[in-house]
Amino acid sequence: MVQRVEKPSLRKGDCDTKLEFVLASGIMLCSVFFCSILLNIYSNKLMAQSIPATNNGSFSLYKNPIQGIKILYPSFWEKFENKSSSDKNGTLTNVVRFSPPHKNGAELAATLDIKLDNISGIKSITLANYSEEITSDLGQDFKVAESNVTLAGYPAYKLLYTGLENNVDLQAMMVITLKDGMAYIINYTAEPEQYSHFLPTVQRMLDSFKILK
Fold this sequence. Notes:
The strands form two sheets. Strands 3-4-5-9-8-7-6 form a seven-stranded antiparallel β-sheet. Helices cover 31% and strands 37% of the residues. The protein is of the alpha+beta class. It folds into two domains: 12-47; 59-211, Protein Transport Mog1p, Chain A (3-Layer(aba) Sandwich). 21% of the residues are buried. The chain has helices at residues 12-47, 127-138, 192-208, and strands at residues 59-64, 69-74, 78-81, 92-99, 110-118, 142-151, 154-165, 168-179, 182-190, 210-211.
């Protein structure tokens, strides 16, 4: 005779235990999911400050005797020299760019550019005239605020400007001075959340800038 095998019946206690297990598992999965989202948001927020501004205060000297300038820069920052002119008339020269280290293919966290503009062919140009022209140019795309400062011991104009460039939010500072038919331009640019992080280092670089000619 074949005996009929009865299916085991679930008692109420067993059902409750399984339900509790399912609920606990669901809550745990949700917690892990939301924690990962929050961690990702927090990591992105801190990314702007993940690159140190200086390496234990260690600075190196950049000196360009041909262009007649020198400046201190953080030892571990990258340096890109360019001796070519950057405008059609050949008067504006991109001398050097400094930036914190970055991964290949990644956007630069911040940049500090030094440019020289040979204005010896323009008669009776003043610092005010020159700066006004640049301010007018920048004002087409950016909000600009200007103030009087010094650079390398000479009277200078500081232009602070913010706005969009190539659909990227930017905050920047440009400092300009004139000497013997040459305009010396230092331009610091960064994304808004990174601007303040590197500003003390940039200010020290500005304070160290010297004109040798």
